[in-house]
Amino acid sequence: MPALMARVRRWYRRLLDGDARAGRDTLVALLALTVVLGLLPIVLPYSWPPSALVLPRVVGGLVLPRGRLLVLVCAALAGSVLGAVVQDPRGVRLGVTVVLAATGATVLVANRFRHRLGLLGTQGDSMLLELAEHTRTLARLPDRLLDWHFDSALAPAGGASFSGDFLLCAHRPEDDLLELLLVDVSGKGSRAAARSTHLSGAFAMLLGRVPPEAFLPAANDHLVRMGWEDHFATAVHLALRPTTGEYRLFNAGHPSPVRYRRADNTWEPSPSGGPALGLLPGAPYPGTTGRLTHGDSLLLFSDGLVEVPGRDLDEGVGRLLAAAEPEVRSHRTQQELTRGAAERLVRTVARNVSDDRTLVLVRRVGTPG
Fold first, then answer.
1. DSSP codes of every residue in 147-164
2. Are the C-beta atoms of residues 15 and 63 closer than 8 Å to each other?
């Protein structure tokens, strides 16, 4: 049995890799199965359903290229028509033939996208899962870094694995520099997620490899060269020096990050920056400087977390800050702070929102001296 399973796996890999012989053998096997499933309802009309002809079509839609799948679909439809002619054409057989025709059309439409990509079986699904995992790896924040606590939560619209928001992190200990980038791509759904996936890879190549003040101008130039009509991206870029708490913020049309001052329990929004990425060639992106002392925090978030249609954006920001204040005012230890504060805030502030929601919490643990 193990040897047989190993042979089956090798054959399946050959089939998905486009091996011509494996493809022909699969078509022959599915055609033979179609003939058998077409004859069984004639021989055993009361114990075998004619709708079983759907099975080879579904399998063929996954593993066969478009031309061979069309042959299989036609063979299954012919088998159903033959059964209706041999038996009484009235009643359920006519309905089954119509259902099989509709199923064949559906399988062909679904196969069209696989054919364009040159992917068979579950290769496309596997690639997307690996890509999603790679994106999550790029967004991974440090677990422990001196007296700092970092926490983030990303909630894609509809619970999908891909989002129009993405987060990147680059840490250069030798330069005492940690960079965080939060980007929100315009639009919603799969198209925004596709552009987000593209940009996350491109921006990951830049982040940490160019000076912080040069990152957003370079990112803007990239989007301008892409020439995406009516599409843009907003971004906020944090460059932090962990040993001193000094930081610089660069903003490209994104909701302004908000700093919490533990010394006087106040919130301070950062100034706005330049325009969204991709709109204006050569746009400037001036930086804002500051310093986080012990007990201070910084919130970075996307507009999906605070934006409510028909309401002022400041109202949503105020709701977020009210929910975040108990978290950032706490004197709890760093270990206790790692228990999903960002996720709690996302669930509290924007639980049922049809938009991507992202929150990053940066806190320097301790009490002011």
1. TEEEEEEEE-GGG-S--S
2. yes
